């Protein structure tokens, strides 16, 4: 089953619409793909689990997640960009992948049903982070896990977004201390945070 929920346009959505038209996030680069797969293996996602994927873009990660959870699982993948969602829907993803155009602060999902939130290369673009984290907490089950991952280091990500500027101004990964404080304020507990030259991985639990 696939869904498309409407959301209002904003400058960030327009920016990612342009990225979609240019095919920027259509697939992982040859350097990124093995790192993304390593990160997913560390997340230990199991068949039958229900996963939320914020900022799914054109679906390059969605397909991998759908394979991992299998037909008995579910991936709810969403993006604020209409063009990204359109392109994601053309990927012929399996039925356990549900695609929506919505935002992280207003998820059309029931309470306590999902096992994990997987934010890959996405967290800096959440414009209201406390509200988004509160929504993630609402929809996760008691043993739910929040994963925040990047296929580069925090320094690299922050440098890239700062150099692009415009709507990406301020779209930075917080410091370790800032993340710990933000997570505690929104009901999460930081389990570990690993920042390496070629990857970044944070695990938080309820």
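Sequence proposed for the structure above (206 residues):
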């Amino acid at each position: 089953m696939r869904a498309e929920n409407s959301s209002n346009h904003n400058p960030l959505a327009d920016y990612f619409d342009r990225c979609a038209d240019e095919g920027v996030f259509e697939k992982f680069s040859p350097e990124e793909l093995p790192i993304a797969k390593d990160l997913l293996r560390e997340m230990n996602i199991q068949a039958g689990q229900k996963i939320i994927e914020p900022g799914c873009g054109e679906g390059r990660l969605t397909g991998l997640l759908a394979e991992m959870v299998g037909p008995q699982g579910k991936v709810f993948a969403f993006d604020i960009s209409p063009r990204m969602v359109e392109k994601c829907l053309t990927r012929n993803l399996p039925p356990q992948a549900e695609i929506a155009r919505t935002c992280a602060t207003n998820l059309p999902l029931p309470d306590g049903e999902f096992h994990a939130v997987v934010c890959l290369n996405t967290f800096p673009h959440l414009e209201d982070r406390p509200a988004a984290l509160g929504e993630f907490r609402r929809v996760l089950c008691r043993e739910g896990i929040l994963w925040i991952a990047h296929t580069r280091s925090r320094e690299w990500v922050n440098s890239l977004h700062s150099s692009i500027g415009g709507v990406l101004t301020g779209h930075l990964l917080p410091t370790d201390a800032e993340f710990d404080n933000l997570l505690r304020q929104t009901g999460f507990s930081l389990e570990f945070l690993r920042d390496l030259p070629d990857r970044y991985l944070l695990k938080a639990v309820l």
